[in-house]
Design a protein that fits this description.
The protein is an alpha/beta fold and 187 residues long. The protein has one domain: Rossmann fold. Helix 4 links the parallel strand 6 and strand 7. Helix 4 packs parallel to helix 5. The radius of gyration is 15 Å and the shape is globular. GO terms for molecular function: hydrolase activity. Keywords: Hydrolase.
């Protein structure tokens, strides 16, 4: 579905744009993802809309065929990228699972702010972004997924999420489309 509107109370949620994740090999250059995220964080702040910066500081316990890190990550791994220009008004969510809602205060924060729509971006498309998007959709939030401000460690997984998952749970658009719509609807 093409991008149609932004609700009066829309929040920007930035997933895992942090030193340890951005340093990983990805399908698209993370510098471009971070640059687009920085443009969006500044625009949302300028319009007085909530900005949520999410990082991951550890892996969830449990067995899996493909194992990732368990427990705490190394020092500095969870540091948010400086380009995001974290502000005191930003809400920071630190997670230990793929999705930003599980065992965090994200849902309560969004409800407290009266948020009805979430604009979502970050790394990795098929992991943290998709998990957070699915949960937001199940909560009944409207979703906008910024397709040029996300990437994945696996191009096939990224493309699958963009083509098969996101159109079923939200609207997709580019950074520029979101910025243009933000200017038109929140001027």
């Amino acid at each position: 579905m093409a991008l149609t509107t932004l609700d009066a109370k829309t929040a920007l949620v930035v997933i895992d744009l942090q030193r340890g994740i951005v340093a990983l090999p990805t399908a698209h250059p993370t510098a471009e993802v971070v640059q687009r995220a920085a443009l969006l964080t500044e625009a949302f702040r300028r319009h007085g809309l909530p900005v949520v910066l999410v990082n991951v500081a550890g892996g969830a316990p449990g067995r899996a065929d493909q194992t990732g890190p368990k427990g705490d990550f190394p020092a500095g791994f969870a540091d948010l990228m400086p380009e995001l220009n974290q502000q005191p008004s930003d809400h920071v969510v630190t997670k230990r699972t793929w999705g930003a809602f599980t065992n965090t205060d994200l849902q309560a924060y969004l409800q407290q702010q009266g948020v009805t729509q979430v604009v979502l971006l970050g790394v990795a498309t098929s992991i943290g972004v998709e998990s957070t998007a699915r949960f937001a959709h199940e909560l009944g939030l409207n979703l906008t997924l910024v397709v040029d401000a996300m990437t994945d460690m696996n191009l096939d997984a990224h493309n699958n999420t963009l083509a098969r998952i996101f159109p079923r749970i939200g609207e997709t658009g580019t950074t520029q489309e979101v910025l243009d719509l933000l200017e038109r609807t929140h001027a």
